[in-house]
Design goal:
Layout lengths: L4 E12 L2 E12 L3 E5 L6 H9 L6 E6 L2 E2 L5 H7 L1 E3 L12 H12 L11 H17 L15 H13 L5 E5 L7 H16 L4 E5 L3 H7 L2 E6 L2 E6 L1 H6 L1 H6 L10
Parallel strand pairs: 3-8, 3-9, 6-7, 7-8
Antiparallel strand pairs: 1-2, 1-4, 4-5, 9-10
Helix pairs in contact: 3-4, 3-5, 5-6
The protein binds adenosine-5'-triphosphate.
Adenosine-5'-triphosphate binds next to strand 2 and helix 1.
GO molecular function: ATP binding; ATP hydrolysis activity
InterPro entries: AAA+_ATPase, ABC_AA/LPS_Transport, ABC_transporter-like_ATP-bd, BCA_ABC_TP_C, P-loop_NTPase
Keywords: ATP-binding, Nucleotide-binding, Transport
Length: about 260
């Protein structure tokens, strides 16, 4: 962990019709941290995430990534700068195998995607090596030849994480990585997210509803409520914050904390 700021969102506002989905929200993500973005349903998390990653243009505010203003930059240019992301809805190809899905990501990043058919020589070896590395990192090597649709949800999620790594990011944005997963699968993915930082030295920003996961994984937590910034702090501060507790009242997610 360092003091350097990897990502900075400054007074972001995004309006849909009359709804201020995100209203003047600022946040900083420090390099080498695991940072969670939380909030009750409809708080504006996905919209804020989209503004950061270039899938929604904010009406106001600025997004800086590695010190560069990326607010109006196309999504693919942010990816080229080192911003990787996964989506709430799966962005993988269910009928293709795990290997093929990851290979697509690696080939696209290496600019080989437009070349139909097999690669040869050095280009093929480089792609093979990277695919093997990513499969090993998410522990899916033994399932590489299975169509993704046949795998457990947790393994599908791991394949998505591997695909987000295929672009060699320094910052990984994960949109609800645990959604719909059983507890054992959740633990498996938590281990991989910890390894993103420990073994790969990456910075992670994730949106998550599962408070057990958030409190155990995150170094910092930003809380949104009805489009506004409600609180920001370390897990213990957030768990004890009365405004956060009231925002979640009735949802039961903080009851056991
Ligand atoms: N494309 C859109 N058009 C109109 N309204 C939208 C659009 N996207 C989001 N909204 C509205 O903006 C607000 C914030 O939505 P958003 O999906 O960002 O919240 P969220 O915190 O991610 O919610 P959840 O936890 O349920 O996924 C909601 O009131 C939502 O209905």
């Amino acid at each position: 962990m360092s003091d350097a700021i990897m990502l900075e969102a400054d007074s972001i506002t995004k309006v849909f019709g009359g709804v201020r989905a995100v209203d003047d929200v600022s946040m900083q993500v420090r390099e080498g941290t695991i940072h969670a973005l939380i909030g009750p349903n409809g708080a504006g998390k996905t919209t804020f995430f989209n503004a950061i990653s270039g899938f929604a243009m904010p009406e106001h505010g600025q997004v800086r990534f590695k010190g560069v203003d990326v607010t109006r930059m196309m999504n693919w240019r942010r990816v080229a700068m080192g911003m990787g992301r996964t989506f709430q809805t799966p962005s993988v190809f269910p009928e293709l195998t795990v290997d093929e899905n990851i290979r697509l990501g690696v080939r696209a990043h290496a600019n080989h995607a437009f070349r139909l058919g097999a690669l040869r020589g050095e280009a093929k070896r480089a792609v093979d090596t990277r695919v093997d590395e990513l499969l090993g990192f998410v522990n899916l090597a033994d399932q590489r030849d299975r169509p993704l649709a046949e795998l457990a949800h947790g393994s599908q999620r791991l394949c998505e994480i591997a695909m987000s790594l295929s672009t060699d990011p320094v910052l990984v944005l994960l949109d609800e990585p645990m959604a719909g997963l059983a507890e054992a699968e959740t633990d498996r993915i938590m281990g991989v997210i910890r390894d993103l930082r420990l073994r790969l030295g990456l910075t992670v920003l994730f949106v998550e509803h599962n408070m057990r996961v958030v409190l155990s994984l995150a170094d910092r937590i930003t809380v949104l409520d009805r489009g506004k910034l409600l609180a920001e702090g370390a897990p213990a501060e957030i768990a004890a914050n009365n405004a956060v507790r009231s925002a979640y009242l009735g949802e039961g997610v903080l009851d056991h904390v």
